[in-house]
Amino acid sequence: MRTAAILAALVVLTGASGAAAAPFSCPATLDAGGQPHKFKYVSFFDGDPADLADLAPDDRSTSPKLDQTWRFERQQGRPIVMVCRYHGTQETVRKDVPASIKECRLEGTIDDKGEIQGSPKLTCK
User: What is the pTM of this model?
Assistant: First the structure.
């Protein structure tokens, strides 16, 4: 009984829970105009996207493979902002990238013209 009480106290003190934190990523779909739109691409910005400081990825893509990685070097007082883009709509999802995220990688398929096919996989860590 005492062991169970100690374990319960440790869970409270460390903030641990039975549920894992959701990974940081773009939503798989976006409802726009009453229609679901699948994830297509992501952009990262140093600060407000209106400032147009679009961060370029390390691009190792070779048709038909899409493989891009962004590594974040943060400037004090400026957030890294992620903008998620979707097939068939101009609507986007904007999220500030938590300081704990050091890089994001986008993997998927592209055609011979470099156009993204389907919904690529975005992994941030």
Answer: 0.81
